[in-house]
Amino acid sequence: MAEATGFAILDGTIEPHLIQQAANDIDTGRIKIIRLLRKHHQFENRPICSSIRDDFMPVGFNSYPRLEVDADTAYQNFDYRILKDLLGYYQEQELPQPDVTRFGQFLWTPGQPPNSFMVLNDYAESVYITIAITPLSPANGWYIFLKGSHLHGCPSARARCGPVPTDLEPGQAIAWHGNLAFKCTAGGDGSFINLVFRVPSFQDIPWYRALMAKNGDL
């Protein structure tokens, strides 16, 4: 379950022509870098970012009862149940639009020491949807998540959580908890779009409180 692991790859794919357009924007250098972070460039948001966001969450998406397949384009609308679970929503509740959309590309950097890990500072009280523009793997900068680490407040307990690679193909998406710890590799050039859903407080979500209490972190 995503609540226990802190992440899950979602069933469904973004329309291929949208992914290709985003990749072309990067390859042709038409995008300005607006922020240089420790592990990735953040690009300016372009119209293609909104198009990909809207393909992930189209008008009327909350009314989808299950995964549906478009026979003409051979792509799938996403199954939002995992996202609702991570956000603490009941399945009948409507999801909000994401608070933030970010377009980025990983940088080549020195690898982390074997027993070290990172956690987010910005938007930790959030759930992320990362949509792959290129293939994403540790070889090109994508994170290696520490399974279940979002349920531990103690750094030493987080460090004992097992690392799990989550490779993605272009157009695939993964939902992950903002408090999840992860390892960074030396790789770079992987590109992605992040949709960020803010949560007022994870402590208010029943499953999160229950699992944290079970681990002795509440």
Adjacency order of strands in the biggest sheet: 1-10-7-12-6-3-2
The residue-averaged pLDDT reads 85
What coarse outline follows from CA principal-axis ratios? globular
Secondary-structure element series? HEHEEHEEHEEEHEEEEH
Please report the number of helical segments.
6
User: Spans with pLDDT under 50 lasting ≥5 residues?
Assistant: 63-75
Q: Into which percent range does the helicity of residues fall?
A: 10-25%
Distance between the termini: 21 Å
Q: How many strand elements?
A: 12
Task: State the main characteristics.
single chain, 218 residues, alpha+beta, seven-stranded antiparallel sheet, three-stranded antiparallel sheet, 12 strands, globular
Description:
With 218 residues, the chain is of the alpha+beta class. Helix content is 22%, strand content 23%. The chain contains 6 helices and 12 strands. The strands form 3 sheets. It has a 7-stranded antiparallel sheet. A hairpin with a 3-residue loop joins strand 2 and strand 3. The two termini are 21 Å apart.
